[in-house]
Amino acid sequence: MPGNKTQTTGESSSPPEAVVLLSGGLDSATVLAVARSEGHRCVALSFRYGQRHAIELEAARRVAQSQGVTDHRIVEIDPRLFGRSALTDDIAVPKNRSLEDMGGSIPVTYVPARNIIFLSYALALAEVTGSRAIFIGVNAIDYSGYPDCRPAFIQQFEAMARAGTRMGVEGRPVRVHAPLLRLSKADIIRWGMSLGVDYAITHSCYDPDPEGRACGQCDSCLLRRKGFDEAGIPDPAVYGPRSG
How far apart (Å, rounded) are the C-alpha atoms in residues 94 and 14? Predict the structure, then answer.
């Protein structure tokens, strides 16, 4: 599968380092595998921000371990920063929406400025560790209408990083890589399978039941199921009795 092949410079023979945003979901697990396949020594970065699907952090730990990443950092963020979202507040998660609805107005599952904040943490960590690359699993094809999953957002954040960091002004800018940006969910799954990603240990659902089983009806579940169906690969996720 095509990807954003990272170009590295310098005389060091050690593998290049990258900060990879890892949620524990299908896309981030694939992005981690892509970064590693390009020879990067990866630092995984996850966040606890009051999300109702905090079970994803356990999935992130499993994914990091399965891919041999020993440096996995989890950042605690005050959940009060992320109110007015169905993922963090007492707001119902939309269920059984059509693809047209998903691509329409920004849904209530949008978390205010989440990717801006996550990428800012990743950028700070990149400067501390000397990393020249950040990997993020955003996707502009099979997505739920989030403004921070679009090519324009990634381009603008990268430009800001060049202008506002020491590495950037010294001519050593941090690149933001979004290799899944223009791929369908089915193509992402196929690519991940070719890289040995174990999707059985990932978690995608926005509204899992108390046992951690996926609801099968939220946008994330529907897009996941559609992707596996189109890829012709069984979805190994465990769905609850009301998954539909």
Answer: 46
E strand segments, the chain: 17-21, 41-48, 72-76, 133-135, 175-177
| Secondary structure, 3-state, 56-89 | HHHHHHHHHHHCCCCCEEEEECCHHHHCCCCCCC
Amino acid 67 reads Q
Task: Name the pTM for this structure.
Answer: 0.87
Q: Sign of dihedral through CA atoms 97, 101, 103, 106?
A: negative
Cβ contacts of 224 within 8 Å, gap of 6 or more: 26, 185, 204, 235, 237
What's 43's DSSP letter?
E
- Residue 91: its pLDDT value, please? 63
pLDDT digits (tens, 9 = 90+) for 58-95: 999 999 999 999 999 999 998 777 777 757 666 677 77
Structure tokens at 118: 């996550």
| In the chain, domain spans | 17-231
Give the length of the chain: 244
Type and span of the H or E element at 1: none
Q: Enter the CATH code of domain 17-231.
A: 3.40.50.620
